[in-house]
Amino acid sequence: MNETPSEVAERPSAWKLQDAKARFSELVRLAGEAGPQHVTVNGKEKAVVLSADDYRRLCGEPMGDALVRLLAEADLDDIEFEHLRTRGPVRDIEL
Known about the structure:
The protein is α+β, with helices and mostly antiparallel strands. The protein has a single domain (5-73), classed as YefM-like domain (YefM-like fold, 3-Layer(aba) Sandwich), CATH 3.40.1620.10. The protein has five helices and three strands.
């Protein structure tokens, strides 16, 4: 959706850059409490300040934690996996 500069400026969460710089603590607090805060330059949206929780949610969880949780919670009792044995070269090791 393309918004006009006046529509962006009227949004409650829109900040002019100079206001965002001057009131940065408030900007960060509102990002955590009220959601993403949009920063504009010359009436055009240039940046969005997010809470750390929103950022983590958008980026996804590292190391596949979400997939591990999904598989752990899934009802997979009736699924059988076929395990094919493979033979590979064996080498002698000294113990």
